[in-house]
């Protein structure tokens, strides 16, 4: 993967310049970008481009509004997702399109955990992105599921992909224990809107096979069809 400076930090890129293939922007997964690329390439023959943007403080940069810490030893959530989204729209996405010679190619957001929450939240705030892959997304975040069920998307997403580890709901934390219920509720809501979407349960808990789950999400967005 090559690296360019996008104003908000280094972007790592993979894929051919100017070939018209869709773009995937991986939020906060810089260290895993190469493996995500390889996982997805092994699952689909459809051309695509992948960019990865590092995020320094996930709790602040990716949370839609302030919230108290989830764990006693953890920090609070700063609620600065709007600032991150502004960075994407004003600096990152234009730099990405220029570097790849992709002025009109659809761009899908891709994220794991809190970045998966951000990827979905962004679709409520802007129509600049064609869809989102929310892999093990933190949809347990206080008030988010209610927000997602009540607010309209800024535009109409082309596709949405949700996934969780089958054991994620077994956590002892009462807030995070809601993750599967919240994710399934949002998935059913998106289905009811007639937007192509999928929800998959993968083996293991939150920290298992993150790169493969993201790769599966890319493959489904490129080749898949809606699943019930």
Commentary on this structure:
With 228 residues, this protein is an alpha/beta fold. The protein has helices at residues 33-43, 58-61, 81-100, 114-125, 144-150, 179-192, 210-223; strands at residues 2-5, 10-14, 23-27, 49-53, 66-67, 77-78, 107-112, 131-135, 159-165, 197-202. It contains seven helices and ten strands. The strands form two sheets. Strands 1-2-4-3-7-8-9-10 form an eight-stranded mixed beta sheet, sandwiched between helices. The mean pLDDT is 92.
- Please tally the helical runs, counting DSSP H or I stretches of 4 or more residues: 7
Order of helices and strands: EEEHEHEEHEHEHEHEH
> What distance lies between the first and last C-alpha atoms, to the nearest angstrom?
36 Å
The level 1 CATH classification is Alpha Beta
Helix/strand/pairing category: alpha/beta
CATH superfamily placement:
Alpha/Beta hydrolase fold, catalytic domain
Into which percent range does the helicity of residues fall? 25-40%
Q: Report the oligomer.
A: single chain
The overall strand count is 10
Main sheet: strands, sense, barrel: 8 strands, mixed
Overall number of domains? 1
Cα Rg: 16 Å
What is the element layout, followed by pairings?
Blueprint (H helix, E strand, L loop, with lengths): L1 E4 L4 E5 L8 E5 L5 H11 L5 E5 L4 H4 L4 E2 L9 E2 L2 H20 L6 E6 L1 H12 L5 E5 L8 H7 L8 E7 L13 H14 L4 E6 L7 H14 L5
Parallel strand pairs: 3-4, 3-7, 7-8, 8-9, 9-10
Antiparallel strand pairs: 1-2, 2-4, 5-6
Record keyword descriptors for this entry.
Rossmann fold, alpha/beta, 36% helix
């Amino acid at each position: 993967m090559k690296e360019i400076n996008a104003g908000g930090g280094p972007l790592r890129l993979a894929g051919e310049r100017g070939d018209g293939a869709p773009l995937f922007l991986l939020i906060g997964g810089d260290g895993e970008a190469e493996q995500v690329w390889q996982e997805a390439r092994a699952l689909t023959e459809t051309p695509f481009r992948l960019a990865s943007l590092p995020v320094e403080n996930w709790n602040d940069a990716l949370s839609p509004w302030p919230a108290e810490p989830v764990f006693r030893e953890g920090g609070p959530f700063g609620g600065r997702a709007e600032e991150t989204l502004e960075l994407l729209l004003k600096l990152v996405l234009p730099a990405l399109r220029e570097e790849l010679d992709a002025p009109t190619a659809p761009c899908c957001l891709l994220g794991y955990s809190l970045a998966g929450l951000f990827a979905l939240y962004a679709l409520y705030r802007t129509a600049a992105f064609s869809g989102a892959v929310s892999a093990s997304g933190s949809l347990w975040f206080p008030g988010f599921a209610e927000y997602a069920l009540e607010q309209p998307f800024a535009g109409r997403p082309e596709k949405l992909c949700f996934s969780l580890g089958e054991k994620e709901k077994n956590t002892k934390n009462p807030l995070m224990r809601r993750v599967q219920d919240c994710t399934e509720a949002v998935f059913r809501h998106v289905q009811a809107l007639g937007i192509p979407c999928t929800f998959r349960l993968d083996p293991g808990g939150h920290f298992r096979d993150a790169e493969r789950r993201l790769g599966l999400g890319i493959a489904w967005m490129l080749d898949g069809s809606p699943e019930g």
